[in-house]
Design goal:
The chain is of the alpha+beta class. Helices cover about 40% and strands about 20% of the residues. It has one domain. It has a 9-stranded mixed beta sheet with strand order 1-7-8-9-6-5-2-3-4, with helices on both faces. Strands 10-11 form a two-stranded antiparallel sheet. The relative contact order is 0.17.
Length: about 350
Amino acid sequence: MLDSLLELALLNKEDIHKKLMDIYKVPLNTEKYWIDYSTTNMDPTKIISAGDGSINKKKYLSFVFYAISAETLTYKKNMKKIENSFIDITTPQRFLDDRIRNYMEIYEYKNALKTIQNYNPDYFLFDGSVMGSLIRPLPLEKELPTNIKKEIIEDYKIPLIKEIKKGQVTISSLQFKNELEKYGDIKTVLMFLESIETLLVIKEILEYKDKIIGISKTSSNKDYFNLDMPDMSIFDLKHDNEGYSKPYSPKVSEKQFKHEYNIENEYFKNQEFSIFYTRLEKNKNILKFEVPYKLTNSKIEELINIIKPICTEGYPYLLKKAHHDVVIKKTDMEQLIKIMGFYEKNGREML
């Protein structure tokens, strides 16, 4: 660290703390949105599953090595686990991070499907947001002509659905790689087909929408107050007690009104989600909950009664364990690289 940076920290500490206090003094009445609720009617009888995924990559001069893992945990008399992983190399390319992230989502959703079908939990907890997956734009959306996209969907929609129904946790699109060159640039075409696969898997997940709960530790949403600060941080500052916010229930079309889906457009646009924030233990973190249906206050309290018994320090234990199990650390990548025997320079050796 440079000496000048340390000096600046010492000189500006007081001014920066004053700015921080101004941020914390949010002149806003949040009472009409928040309900204090400390459950005394917990229901520990439900079967709960939870899942998470992880990615990591190492860039070399001529290729990128990446690894993906996904795990689901179910407590049904004892702990049951489903885990699946994927490793590969690829050449450097545009939107590589988006593509690998899409792979991770496919693994997470297919893992969830397998868990739901095998163990039939009452609820499945996702780390994150299903709606977020639906409203995230496709990076190469405009790089394929409409007629080519329609042709690809016509040729591969049914085969992809058949592959998804088999219950195997894999990137099904990759098995068609050698057939896709006739449509244009193979990377662009394959990424498009992979995005179609993701949508088809999400549609399959939404067949079990009564079971699905997305839980996030952070959120940048500003749907309640439309201020510079996210809603989650405002509720966190204003309410220390256990409780929840009254639900906000948008349709996908309200969040992604400019986007037309290449498949099942009306189906996805008309999907309705409900979002609320909750603190499950006093002075612990606020969480964002998301479900793919319209919620009432009484249903929120029912969900809190079910989720709270499986929490430690205000957060679902199964989600916490799945995250710790699945995360691919730097040391894990180093071990994988040794196993693979990669020795090519990555461009940082001289630093």
